[in-house]
Amino acid sequence: MSDDPLPPPSPAPRTAAVIPAAGRGVRLGPGAPKALRVLGGTPMLVHAVRAMAASRAVSLVVVVAPPDGAAEVKTLLDAHALPDRTDFLVVPGGETRQESVKLGLDALPPGYDIVLVHDAARPLVPVDTVDAVIEAVRDGAGAVVPALPLADTVKQVEPAAAPGDPEPVVATPDRSLLRAVQTPQGFDRATLVRAHGTVTDDVTDDASMVEQLGVTVVTVPGHEEAFKVTRPLDLVLAEAVLARRRLNDGF
């Protein structure tokens, strides 16, 4: 039996989160960019940053600001209490979400092997969901998305002949095989960087880019409170969720 000491355990891979927040949010109506809309007295972006920083595995959050608004976003974050254990970085974004995520990736220093990409418009994602995504990447998945089963029946339609005309239904997909995908989406950093350097199609999420590389994307359970605040009614629901949390937490 050898008396040689066992090698120390390998440190857990470090995790960074990228939050693209350069969009205008036209569906919420005129006014401030969607990420800067106030929720419970605090901008949604600050809630989203805190949601990422709530995970002890996340040691860096990169916020991708509107191209001409990086200084404003930096001032905004400096004005709100954020966890001391987490570093924060603000960089200017691009014209599209895809460009903005790539600029956030480009700003990451070495040493971060796992990258989360999170929508600023999902300010209330619970930390358990964030941790579940990170854990799945640590376990070897190249790409992970939190997802929920669909409650509604889904119809596939043909485009209407003219705006406002009825749309013909062509199929009813089996909803048991469908999922509504949320964020944060988690990735092996090298895989996500390769996707952004290879895929040029306009996509709605980063997991779609990784799929085009032939990499398997897996799901973990999402959460109902990780919904996307897109319409005015979503803001009402988000306010209600936040009020309930404050009541339960006693502040």
UniProtKB/TrEMBL annotation:
Matching Gene3D superfamilies, A to Z?
A: Spore Coat Polysaccharide Biosynthesis Protein SpsA, Chain A
What's this protein's name?
2-C-methyl-D-erythritol 4-phosphate cytidylyltransferase
Q: List the CDD domains.
A: CDP-ME_synthetase
Coiled-coil regions listed in the entry = none
In which family does this protein belong, per the annotation?
Answer: Belongs to the IspD/TarI cytidylyltransferase family. IspD subfamily.
For this protein, the record's InterPro entries field holds: IspD (IPR001228), IspD/TarI (IPR034683), IspD/TarI_cytidylyltransf_bact (IPR050088), ISPD_synthase_CS (IPR018294), Nucleotide-diphossugar_trans (IPR029044)
Enumerate the UniProt keywords alphabetically: Isoprene biosynthesis, Nucleotidyltransferase, Transferase
Q: Transferase among the record's keywords?
A: yes
